[in-house]
Amino acid sequence: MGSKHDTIQPHRRTLVLGVTGAGKSHHVRSIVSRVAQSGGSVLVVDPKGEYSDLSPCSPLDLVPRLLAGDDLRLRTSPQWQSLDSLAEDVSLVLDSLRWRPPAARPMLVVVEECGLLRGPARSSLEVLATVGRSYGVELVCVAQRASQIPATVRAQASRIVAFRQTLPADLEALSEVMGPSALDLRTLARYEFRAWSEGDAWSA
Ligand SMILES: Nc1ncnc2c1ncn2[C@@H]1O[C@H](COP(=O)(O)OP(=O)(O)OP(=O)(O)O)[C@@H](O)[C@H]1O
Ligand SMILES: [Mg+2]
Description:
With 204 residues, this protein is of the alpha/beta class. It has one domain (13-197): Rossmann fold (3-Layer(aba) Sandwich). Helix content is 32%, strand content 18%. The two termini are 13 Å apart. The model has no long low-confidence stretch (mean pLDDT 93).
């Protein structure tokens, strides 16, 4: 279930997790390009600038386009100097999604580096994960550690793409969502992952 990811499903919440260099962004770029090629609307919050295939747009320029309900295929890379300024920019973007007009097309929103998000950005992410479906947003959250994702967002996950995780706190957080098979993640090689969907078994 859910292994093909080329259409936007506003009820789907995907977590992509794994240590640095494991292949998370590489994997998500392939999802983004499939969705974009099939005509879907895509926005990537890209603090490290890992999505150079997409056109860049600053957070401030992006907001009016979201409010207008534009169909987008963009990345936004906050020009952040500190975790506080990153949190402000990301919060602005995520909150603006709520005000897209009801007639706007569903949008895939990828939030990279969720583990770096603090204060207002974490709250905005929680709201988006919880009620974003009602404004047509499918969410993909990317982080190095499962335990860095807010518990509310983890609890909403309908799909998890897990690369190598080794720390007990992360394995425990994942076990809560997907059961004891989370322990298998300790043995994965670089670029290897397991995918889990609600009501589904693990698959390579
Ligand atoms: N399946 C793959 N096959 C070949 N190369 C890959 C694969 N996955 C990732 N890579 C390469 O490995 C490097 C690290 O991958 P990637 O940037 O996706 O890691 P990441 O998990 O996003 O790390 P970070 O958390 O630091 O952002 C990149 O140069 C990428 O092109
Ligand atoms: Mg990355």
